[in-house]
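User: I'm preparing a small set of examples for a lab meeting where we compare how different chains pack in three dimensions. I only have the primary sequence for this one, and I'd like the structure in token form so I can line it up with the others. Please keep the answer compact; I'll paste it straight into my notes.
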Amino acid sequence: MRIFLTGATGFIGATVVPELIKAGHQVTGMTRSDAGAQALIDAGVEVHRGTLEEPDTLRSGAEKADAVIHTAFDHDFTRFIENCEKDKRAIAALGSALAGSDRPLVITSGTGMGSGEHGEPATEDVFNTSHPNPRIASELAGNALLEAGINVSVVRLPQVHNPYKQGLISPLVAIAREKGVSAYVGEGRNRWPACHVSDVALLFRLAIEKREPGARYHAVAEEGVSSREIAEALGRGLKLPTVSISPDEAAAHFGWMGMFVSLDMPASSAKTQVRLNWHPTGPTLITDLNEARFV
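Assistant: Understood. Below is the structure token output for the 295-residue chain.
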């Protein structure tokens, strides 16, 4: 297939590119910069100039494709709500280019959208439409397209990692350096799911090839790594003490990350593994943190 990939030079997209090419697909990647364009050319990818802020550039890229994978997202979490709404508009634009066809669109969301009750792991068949996380806008946009007859499916992401980047954990490094301690909240029992970026890239390929409207997949290798384990790994790498802080101190200590650090967000991928015959094999989150070079 000729696949249009947004976020093609990003952390996840840059790993999706070789996964798609290896499987025989042609890839057109979106970028806004000259440096990004050169990186795509070097990777054997056709360049499409565009930005999330310009929906027409998204639409024009999707119009020429047999399938679309949308991994682009503005990760400025100080403007998180605004960026989630921007993603909603981007998804609508991509979908409009696919109207009247069965060409598939795979969008991206977070595993929290499938959260259950009483601390149960999030699952693929659950969509919590009242979830307080603003990222719900992405799946609501996908649902609107699905109702309009567009072939949309969703890959929900946990903390995606390698030794150089680890999702929401990466900002904790800067906070730990600033504060002089690697902290967790309370007993640090709250859990975050995780998956190595190479396994995530494989899942995106399998999802686009499956072409199943309305499917939700969880890119989860580890259902939940405790915040204390994460803080201890960061402490070892940064050579800083690991400490517990009270919930009342979290906002002041972590800043904008305070809304995330104490959340318990376990997630399962059992159904995804069966439906797509996807079995993650990459290193664990703690393994990558232990191998990280915090410079």
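A couple of notes for your slides: The first strand starts at residue 2 and ends at 6. The two ends are 40 Å apart (CA to CA).

User: Perfect, thanks.
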